[in-house]
Amino acid sequence: MSLPTGTVTFLFTDIEGSTRLMQELGDEYVQAQLTHHKILRAAFRSGNGRELRTEGDSFFCVFKSALDACGSAAQAQTELSKHEWPHGKPIRVRIGVHTGEAPLVSEEYIGVDVHHAARVAAAAHGGQVVVSDATRSLVEAALPAHLTLRDLGLHRLKDLARPERLYQLVIDGAPNTFPALRTLDSTPNNLPTQLTSFVGREPAVTEAKRLLHGTRLLTLTGPGGMGKTRLSLQIAAEVVQSFPDGVYFVPLSAVRDSSLISSAVAEAIGIPVAGNRLPFEAVVEYLTGKKVLLVLDNFEQLLPAGAPVVSDLLHAVEGTKCVVSSRATLRVYGEQEMALEPLRTPDLRTLPSLAALSQYEAVKLFIERAVAAKHDFQVTNENAPAIAGICERVDGLPLAIELAAARVKLFSPQALLSRLDGSVAVLGSGSRDLPRRQQTLQGAIAWSYDLLDESHRRAFRRFSVFGRGANLDQAEAVCGPASELGVEVLDSLDELAEQSLLRRMPDYDEPRLLMLQVIREYAAELLTASGEADSIKDRHAAAYLSLAEEVAPKLFGAEQKKWLDRLELDQDNVRTAFDWSVSRGDAVLALNLGAAFWRFWQMRGHLREGRMRLDTVLHMPGAQDRPGDRARALEAAGGVAYWQGDMEAAEAYYDECLELTRATGDERAIAGALYNDSFPSNVMRRDLPKGQALLDEAVAIYRRLGDEAGIARCLWGLGQIYYYLESNDRAISAIEEAIDLFRRLDDRFGLGWALFVRASIALKTDDTETAGSIDREALKFFAEAGDVTGVVLVLEAMAEVARRKGTSLRAERLAGAAAAQEATSGAGLGTVVGTREGWRKGAALSDAEAAARADGQAMTLEQAVAYALADEGLELDAGEA
């Protein structure tokens, strides 16, 4: 049954005091909760309600009819009040009902009215049904005789909206007398009205409430535009019942003198300060003996002098607590920091379904603000990826998302995303009633930047060259020595992180810092204006060339995965270095970057990008002038083309590389070029004698030099040639010698590929058990290293093994997984290698086989590997064992 659209009625429920009940009833609480679920669901069904979500003790339902919603709420409370609960401990449920319009994204309602219904429920007490004025207007004249409405007066809900009139649904036979509603009006406060709903920080509010319970000073930190002010207000609204003497918002953005903090607090509370009396003394006198929460907003420009004022105040009055929003902590005793993270954004590489997409905080905020800006805005399968891209492009920064959403009046999400790729300046300005510094992203960031001293500003500008963060080694190499900055790099970066202009990235073995993209663009503009951009970008490119060259020889041993992961962490920095070298016309830098980085592209499945970049580099002016550098880049280009399955291009690159290398007279380099040049003709099988001659020459050089690694590689290549020539005994002899050498050398990369060829020989002789066993060992090596191209090829081989064993569904799942990963990574070698194509050339797939193929195509790389390594006995298809 489809969900209702248009004007609908939302109903929220929640058990009052569930934690206390759980403790009192112990094991009996579970059964009591199940009874509660049964009563509520029966009531919802009676009114044709649709249960949308259950979270713990709460229900969220939607009704087409407001009258039906009220009827269901009444039935629920009647049945709950009649039930005999264990030990006389009744379950009391608060229910809120509100009617409005909410966009339906897949199976999820979003928008202000959903939040509004939840806030109405939060105002109620256990056993009470509270309805909004919108619902009242629809049902008042049509309620049955046993139901009436009681006017509860005007109230401000905890979403900080304007006051509205609320009503209680009075139910014959159920309790109808309750305390005052749990709204903002129950506590003195000056919390400002908010014109938009609070979206995307619900877990943060929960965590902040927990932290505030255990501390008297909670400081929310984050850069401009992170939503610190809005979050602090929402926290205050959520805890008003805990501060019966008042919750007060103290705006400090216009205050520059720390001596005026007490005056600002007095003004916010409404404390008169007469004559020569000090404001601090007046505030302390008023707060003594009271339970009050102060929300001190935008404290950063008052640091460090203002911090002792807050500390002194908290020491003077025991019942007062403070929530502070600031770029940096106050650094006083007893302070609890809560650093705000950007809103969650989806991974653009594996976008979830439309319904799942709308659950991401950043996407949800965009949609709600877009609907507010353009009432007929809709999320579709066509524009959803662009919405996700926008949120990712601005790093989940709330202010940036709100500014972007406002632009849907002018641009479609797709058009807006394409413009954002140029600059976030397209976002323009936000609401005019916000402080000027919050109207634009640039204003929000400039506010933080202007508070830095010049040495920290210089470090801030220079750090903008990093693509996606940096560790301390790279930061020190690029940002410069203390003699240039005027401060030690480590100290400066630490200060920038303290001021929320950099983020400390968790879960890394070494300290790593990241600058959000929107902040980075601002810093990059300042770097350009400083005149330092070219020299700092040169340093950056040199630093990442050095890293790539250091790591390149480490990509074959026992720590292969560690070093691939290290390069992946800085892939965006290497991209930035490539782009700079090309734009600057530095062919030498570009050639060497390509030569050092190509194995990463091959092993981690970025072949298309690698091919594009290497083709660009090799055609740069000046790329012909350095034969040695060009030869290394040609080897890289040949390797990428080989793994793509483009053997003609690979042969052309390798031929030129060999020609340049022979001219150097360097025997070791010549042997390497000979080895590389043998593979295209081998794989295409069009000139096996040429391939064998090249390898014979190479292996002779390596044996003369005593280079066991080179010998092993050549034996692997010769084993492939003998395999193609159907000289199986010679193939096995060569490959097994190569395997022994690779094992002794602990060359995981070479061992994986030698095992793969050995399995192919076994398969050719119909020894499927041996083939399957060896393929499994090879797959483990590739999977452990995260070598995508290796995994793809072995999955195809294992699909052929399964086909020959008669387990066709397993074969199709593996083949589907291989095909999907091949398409994603650009690894096309499997389409050229001809020993694993039995499953490609079979008859039309049965329905079951087609479904199995689709299952495989839907697998992630990790799922495909796990499936391939699972016990084959568990995967025998019915009737095939």
Please give a structural write-up.
This protein is of the alpha/beta class and 881 residues long. Helices cover 55% and strands 10% of the residues. It is built from 39 helices and 17 strands. The strands form four sheets. Strands 2-3-1-4-7-9-8 form a seven-stranded mixed β-sheet, with helices on both faces. It has a five-stranded parallel β-sheet with strand order 11-12-13-10-14, with helices on both faces. Strands 15-17-16 form a three-stranded antiparallel β-sheet. Helix 2 packs antiparallel against helix 3. The longest helix has 19 residues, at 28-46. The relative contact order is 0.04. Residues 834-840 and 874-881 have low confidence and may be disordered.
Write a brief structural summary.
The protein has 881 residues and is an alpha/beta fold. It is globular and about 95 Å long.
Reconstruct the topology from this structure.
Blueprint (H helix, E strand, L loop, with lengths): L6 E9 L2 H8 L2 H19 L3 E6 L2 E6 L2 H17 L10 E9 L2 E2 L2 E2 L2 H12 L5 E4 H7 L7 E9 L8 E8 L30 H13 L2 E5 L6 H11 L8 E5 L9 H9 L9 H9 L4 E6 L9 H10 L3 E7 L8 E5 L14 H4 L3 H13 L10 H10 L4 H9 L6 H8 L15 H4 L1 H9 L4 H10 L6 E2 H8 L2 H4 L3 H10 L4 E2 L7 E3 L2 H14 L2 H19 L8 H10 L1 H14 L2 H17 L3 H12 L8 H18 L2 H16 L4 H18 L3 H18 L2 H17 L3 H18 L2 H17 L3 H18 L2 H18 L2 H18 L21 H11 L3 H9 L12
Parallel strand pairs: 4-7, 10-13, 10-14, 11-12, 12-13
Antiparallel strand pairs: 1-3, 1-4, 2-3, 5-6, 7-9, 8-9, 15-17, 16-17
Helix pairs in contact: 2-3, 6-7, 8-9, 12-13, 12-14, 13-15, 18-21, 18-22, 19-23, 23-25, 23-26, 25-26, 26-27, 26-28, 27-28, 28-29, 28-30, 29-30, 30-31, 30-32, 31-32, 32-33, 32-34, 33-34, 34-35, 34-36, 35-36, 35-39, 36-37, 36-39, 37-38, 37-39
